[in-house]
Amino acid sequence: MNPEDSVKIEFPCLYPIKVMGEDVEDFREEILLIIKKHAPDLCEEHITYRASRNRKYLAVNVSIMATGVPQLEALFEELKTSGRVALVL
Predict the structure, then answer these.
(1) CA–CA distance, 50 with 6 (Å, rounded to integer)
(2) d(CA 86, CA 89)
């Protein structure tokens, strides 16, 4: 596949992010603090949670108003280096 053929994202846009980690007491709060640092206009109606079947893990699903690639790269990097996140999609 040629890079010019790939789908390009037009910014600004509503961009979905899924963050998974162990479902411990402050996981939700810490993840939302990181996300709000990079997307301060995050709306509560764009946040959902889903626990794993055995309740060991929690998925935090958000949709942010993404302004560009640098914002998304910085957000993903901070989430990955937080030490709390198992997976970011």
Answers:
(1) 31
(2) 10
